[in-house]
Amino acid sequence: VTESIGFVMPKTLLAMAGADLSPNKISDSALILIDCQNEYVTGALPLNDIDGAMLAAQDLLKRFRALGRPVIHVQHQGAAGGAFDLDAPRGAIDARVAPIDGETIVRKKLPNSFAATELDQHLKSIDVTQLIIVGFQTHMCVSATTRAALDLGYRSTLVGSAIATRDLPAASGDGVVSAETVHNATLAALADRFAIVVANTDDIPD
Q1: What single DSSP character describes residue 204?
Q2: Who has the most CB within 10 Å: 43, 46, 96, 191?
Q3: What is the mean pLDDT of residues 58-76?
Q4: Chain Cα centroid distance, residue 60
């Protein structure tokens, strides 16, 4: 006779610590849009469901603007003639989420948006400690920025529908890890300790 073992739902480290798991409110936060550039839409690095993610980011951006909350556009700066060349259309921010007058643009050369940039200094100057982060790619610049944000004392919320990535080669060299798997695994890892992760923009309260 075999005895079945009941499935135990895993918990994040944040849940086990009794942390507040509610997402940040727009009224308390700055919106960080990471690398919402044409390189991921029409350039050499098209992402899985990039249009859906860009429209979700646009929806959130409109809500921040309506409430007069800080918006920061992070723009990756690549080499001339290559990916993310800021002097070429591929490096421009997608028109759907393009900056307007009064919104801050931070240019970076590394995955972590805080590395060798004025992002931390700017957030401190406007006295904001809560962030809502969207953009690209999930496993790369979004992950690196979110992890660094915790080290710097920020509380982050990520919106899964407004973040995207691409298929990756398996580390073993055999096969492909789908964009969906990379995206979901990365968000699960970040939700364990580094951020509150919600599925959709509707999950973010005003």
Answers
A1: S
A2: 191
A3: 98
A4: 12
Helix (H, G, I), strand (E, B) or coil at 100: coil
Any idea which residues carry the catalytic annotation? 35, 108, 141
Residues 6+ apart with CB under 8 A from 188: 197
Q: Are the beta carbons of 11 and 5 closer than 8 angstroms?
A: no
In this predicted structure, the answer to whether residue 4 has a pLDDT above a threshold of 70 is no
CA–CA separation, 40 and 28 (whole Å) = 30
Average pLDDT over all residues of the chain: 97
Rounded Cα distance between 141 and 192, Å, is: 18
Strands 176-177 and 168-169: antiparallel
Euclidean distance between CA atoms 56 and 45, whole angstroms: 19
pLDDT band at 1 (very low <50, low <70, confident <90, very high): very low
